[in-house]
């Protein structure tokens, strides 16, 4: 399985996926930390994370897969939502909580 196929399987295999630096318990950058905080506060309980620092192939190829250059990257229902700034903006507007509750209800 190619790295792009592995990324596709992660994105399709979980309703909410965050590709981040570090883990939810130990984020390794401020952007990943803020994204996790926003997702947690928005009620994401079924959150699947991928630590890109542990998988250099994923880290190198995810920007090509998603056409998004930075980390973290949030996917909901297989669709790229965006990075930290977009995740925080969606949280502040209440939109992230709505998206998450719809995802977890289905």
From TrEMBL:
GO terms for molecular function: 2 iron, 2 sulfur cluster binding; disulfide oxidoreductase activity; metal ion binding. Pfam families: Glutaredoxin. Transmembrane segments: none annotated. Glutathione binds at residues 21, 59, 71, 84-85. InterPro entries: Glutaredoxin, GRX_PICOT-like, Monothiol_GRX, Monothiol_GRX-rel, Thioredoxin-like_sf. Keywords: 2Fe-2S, Iron, Iron-sulfur, Metal-binding, Redox-active center. The keyword Oxidoreductase does not apply. Residues 16-81 form the Glutaredoxin domain. SUPFAM superfamilies: Thioredoxin-like. The keyword Transport does not apply. [2Fe-2S] cluster binds at residue 29. It comes from the Bacteria. Belongs to the glutaredoxin family. Monothiol subfamily. This is Glutaredoxin. It comes from Marilutibacter spongiae. The gene is grxD.
């Amino acid at each position: 399985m190619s790295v792009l196929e592995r990324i596709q399987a992660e994105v399709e295999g979980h309703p909410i996926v965050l590709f981040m630096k570090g883990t939810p318990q130990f984020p390794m950058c401020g952007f990943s930390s803020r994204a996790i905080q926003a997702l947690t506060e928005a009620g994401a309980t079924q959150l699947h994370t991928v630590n890109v620092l542990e998988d250099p192939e994923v880290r190198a190829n995810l920007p090509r897969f998603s056409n998004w250059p930075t980390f973290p990257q949030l996917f909901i229902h297989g669709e790229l939502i965006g990075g930290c700034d977009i995740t925080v903006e969606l949280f502040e507007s209440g939109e992230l909580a709505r998206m998450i509750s719809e995802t977890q209800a289905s």
